[in-house]
Amino acid sequence: MRIATMGGTADLLSRHHFTIRKKFGQNFLVDPSKVEGIVDSAELTKEDAVLEIGPGLGGMTQLLSERAGSVTAVEIDKELIPILKESLKDCGNVDIVNADILKFDPKAYAEEKGIKSFKVVANLPYYITTPILMHLLEGDAPLKSITVMVQKEVAERMRSGPGTKDYGALSLAVQYRAKPTTVCTVPPECFIPRPNVDSAVVRLDLYETPPVSAADPARMKRIIRAAFNQRRKTLANALSADPALGVSREAVQQALISMGLDERVRGETLTLERFAELSDRLDSPSSL
Fold first, then answer.
1. Which residue stretches of 27-128 are H helix?
2. Integer CA distances (angstroms), 85 to 17, 78, 93, 109, 113, in order
3. Which of 134, 188, 135, 187 is nearest to 157 (CA)?
4. Beta pairing partners, 201
């Protein structure tokens, strides 16, 4: 029986007396066409290994199992594990892992299992979407692509450019590692329970080589985070306030002027290329 339907989900929840818990951001997708659309957009073959984050009841996992060579389903809620074992009992290529994805090491797991690379496919829990994305993008996991459902506003942030209200550290982190494409939007009525926001499916195709070059990429990322931690401040004030960077306000101002920029500029106006250039000009030792 297909789980990602109103009937399939209601039946599982009822038989297992499962209470949906907000603390894990549990919103189960019950629209089969949307599930199929997400999996289709990941462009899976039997050569692919999938990393699914938050499989929930296993509705999307069923289809992933049919399309991919293997699926690693990482679920934090231990109460869902027996349900997943039942719903996925006929899916012999699925490994159910009870773990917090923020503490799960995809690289070590891949090495242990002999997996060359993953395609991430997931309906991410909205309360920790950004930490999960940063964990994947800034780690050294062997990833091919990331296809995820997120809040619509987060999808917009991933694709935003300089000077827009949605532009920030997440935009730059995503665009440094991948090309983001919005696949579709998903309304609240496609879920049990209904979330209070619209959702969107985003595919991130990872670059083999980042589109910009920085002498110290880790330092550039730290500069970006510092710039947007206090986004209403000028760059000179925001960066000099971060002790880990070890730069003075005057040094940042001088670097900006040498780049032909106003010394009072804010981080939200700089492109990724400009952040890379600024990082190279602020050449004090990195403590990252």
1. 32-41, 59-67, 81-87, 106-113
2. 16, 11, 12, 20, 20
3. 134
4. 149, 184
The answer to whether the Cα torsion of 250, 251, 252, 254 is positive or negative is: positive
* CA 275, 280, 282, 286 torsion-angle sign: positive
Tokens of 151: 């809040």
Asked if residue 180 lies in contact with residue 202, where contact means CB atoms within 8 angstroms, the answer is: yes
Residue with tokens 């998903």: 186
Give me the domains of the chain, ranges plus CATH numbers. 6-206 (3.40.50.150), 217-281 (1.10.8.100)
Place of tokens 């510092």: 226
Q: In 3D, which of 139, 129, 147 has the Cα closest to residue 108?
A: 139
pTM of the entire structure? Answer: 0.90
288/190 Cα distance (integer angstroms)? 43
**pLDDT tens-digit readout, 99-114:** 999 999 999 999 999 9
Rounded Cα–Cα distance for residues 244 and 6 (Å): 50
Residue 193, preceding bond cis, omega within 30 degrees? yes
160 touches 167 (CB < 8 A) = yes
Q: For the segment 71-108, what is each residue's pLDDT rounded down to a tens digit?
A: 999 999 999 999 999 999 999 999 999 999 999 999 99
Neighbours of 228 (CB within 10 A): 18
Name the token pair of 74. 């990482």
Nearest to 273 by CA among 218, 212, 221, 223: 212
